[in-house]
């Protein structure tokens, strides 16, 4: 018996068996922990995320680990602002510390709302798209698509969830294009020339993401439609925008690739001519019509009095056609991992999405995100689905603060916006998405005072934490970026260690708003802030301004000054 036991003991001591045993035990323990963690997350989700409902501390720790649901994001289960960070005289007065316990709960709720808000809006949009899924164009055929020699390059749109044939056709028709092509089930291309190489019909086999049973191209294949006229009575000239009166370059023919001389020339005639040639600018001087792009020779920066544009003198009238400037629309992921991990940090509502649009189009490289916003991914921000630590993107969007979260990054662009405007922008996003406006009922509800009371302190603590823990910072004020786009964008691109051409920056300026300018009925001029709210926000403004100057940064712009 003793001999048999000795043999068994010797067998168990063998290296291979012991390694196998430990591995199996490790996997079993990990599975049990994962199941327990999933159960806690589901329990937390069932309790809801209403504003009036506090998030329990234990559930908060687990829920934040999965805030970026499709990706394994780094857990952020710590308060937004550490008490020590706010007790330092250089960074903030003692009264700011009292809000610390509320901030981490606020951020938990914000993340849950951020994720849960996406699905209802996308579902509603999908239903609306299906109601208008009636095809208006004439199907031409299936064609090969070469990204390097693409003929349908006048405008490019993405919708990786709701793309339909009708949606693509209408988008191209509104911009005065003759053809609409769809690829990969989600990409829409517009142009006035058919692709050169036809493909077999069966090679266009990708189902439209937003319309079951319809074909939207394939892999390197385009389903091409001839776009019919818009509704009866609609005029293409409605999308032509007057840019102003500018001094004409010395040689118009050398500056602009296409020209037309026409007696009794009208804006509509010139715009349609330039649109068919796929140019975003229509330039009129007397009976001369010229088409082209903004360039270093014609940058559209110093406007003149409109009276100078009458006749055939030294000035000309400039109009923006419906055609998109595509010199800066190509984007890609980095082919090798970036050595520097850069954050694009801001408080929610401070223009982070707009800044990402500018950076992507200026550099030609996708930006990443600490979170996953399906609505942004669907609109072409492909870095949303890339893991935030992949280092394949030029920088990573984040609203995080706190020592651990900040010190993960080697450097950061810190985007700051007037808290009054930021709070209103985030409130609009909360109730109407990225492009809508909250209703009067929302503003008059008790949600708004609670929102201001909680989020205003977050605005201040976000800046203070990045000033304290950030290793290398470029502070950019949203208002300065909006007013002086090219100079500020140059600073940002140089900070990211990327070289871009002047023409590419001018292209970005020509497409400065992208697809993320709020639409619909704009809010009437009104004052949503009570005097009590103003007093609270103004104290935070003074604190942040003092902290910026203490770190030798430019203080807050004049318009931030307490009103």
From TrEMBL:
InterPro entries: P-loop_NTPase, Sialate-O-sulfotransferase, Sulfotransferase_dom, WSC_carb-bd. Gene3D superfamilies: P-loop containing nucleotide triphosphate hydrolases (3.40.50.300). SUPFAM superfamilies: P-loop containing nucleoside triphosphate hydrolases (SSF52540). Coiled coil: none annotated. It comes from the Eukaryota. Residues 136-228, 239-328 form the WSC domain. The keyword Repeat applies. Keywords: Repeat. GO terms for molecular function: sulfotransferase activity. Belongs to the WSCD family. This is WSCD1 protein. It comes from Caloenas nicobarica (Nicobar pigeon). The gene is Wscd1.
């Amino acid at each position: 018996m003793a001999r048999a036991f000795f043999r068994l003991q010797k067998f168990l001591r063998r290296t291979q068996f012991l390694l196998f045993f430990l591995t199996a035990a490790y996997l079993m323990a990990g599975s049990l922990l994962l199941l327990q963690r999933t159960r806690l997350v589901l329990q937390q989700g069932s309790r809801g995320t209403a504003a009036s409902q506090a998030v329990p501390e234990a559930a908060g720790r687990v829920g934040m680990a999965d805030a970026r649901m499709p990706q394994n994001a780094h857990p952020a289960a710590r308060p937004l602002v550490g008490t020590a960070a706010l007790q330092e005289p250089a960074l903030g007065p003692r009264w700011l510390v009292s809000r610390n316990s509320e901030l981490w709960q606020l951020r938990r709720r914000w993340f849950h709302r951020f994720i849960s808000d996406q699905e209802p809006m996308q579902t509603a949009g999908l239903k609306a798209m299906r109601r208008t899924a009636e095809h208006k164009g004439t199907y031409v055929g299936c064609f090969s698509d070469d990204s390097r020699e693409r003929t349908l390059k006048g405008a490019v749109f993405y919708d990786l969830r709701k793309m339909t044939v009708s949606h693509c056709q209408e988008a191209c028709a509104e911009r005065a294009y003759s053809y609409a092509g769809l690829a990969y089930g989600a990409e829409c291309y517009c142009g006035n020339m058919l692709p050169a190489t036809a493909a077999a019909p069966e090679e266009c086999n990708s189902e439209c993401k937003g319309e079951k049973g319809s074909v939207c191209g394939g892999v390197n294949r385009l389903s091409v439609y001839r776009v019919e006229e818009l509704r009866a009575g609609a005029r293409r000239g409605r999308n032509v925008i007057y840019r102003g009166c500018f001094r004409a370059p010395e040689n118009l023919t050398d500056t602009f690739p296409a020209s037309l001389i026409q007696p009794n020339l009208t804006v509509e005639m010139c715009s349609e001519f330039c649109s068919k040639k796929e140019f975003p600018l229509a330039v009129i001087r007397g009976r001369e019509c010229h088409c082209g792009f903004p360039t270093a020779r014609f940058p559209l920066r110093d406007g003149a009095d409109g009276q100078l544009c009458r006749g055939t003198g030294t000035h000309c009238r400039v109009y923006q056609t419906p055609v998109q400037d595509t010199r800066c629309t190509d984007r890609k992921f980095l082919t090798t991992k970036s050595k520097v991990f850069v954050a694009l940090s801001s408080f929610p509502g401070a223009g982070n999405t707009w800044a990402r649009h500018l950076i992507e189009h200026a550099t030609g490289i996708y930006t990443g995100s600490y979170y996953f916003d399906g609505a942004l991914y669907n609109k072409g921000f492909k870095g949303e689905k890339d893991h935030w630590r992949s280092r394949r993107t030029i920088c990573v969007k984040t609203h995080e603060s706190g020592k651990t979260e900040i010190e993960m990054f080697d450097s950061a662009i810190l985007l700051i916006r007037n808290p009054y405007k930021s709070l209103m922008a985030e409130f609009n996003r909360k109730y109407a998405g990225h492009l809508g406006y909250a209703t009067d009922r929302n503003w008059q509800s008790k949600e708004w005072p609670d929102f201001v009371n909680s989020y205003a302190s977050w605005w201040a603590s976000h800046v203070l934490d990045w000033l304290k823990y950030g290793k290398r910072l470029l502070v950019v004020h949203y208002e300065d970026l909006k007013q002086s786009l090219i100079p500020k964008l140059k600073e940002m691109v140089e900070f990211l260690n990327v070289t871009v051409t002047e023409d590419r920056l001018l292209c970005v300026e020509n497409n400065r708003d992208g697809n993320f300018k709020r639409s619909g009925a704009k809010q009437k001029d009104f004052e949503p802030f009570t005097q009590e709210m103003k007093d609270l926000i103004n104290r935070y403004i003074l604190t942040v301004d003092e902290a910026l100057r203490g770190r030798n940064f430019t203080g807050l712009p004049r318009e931030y000054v307490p009103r």
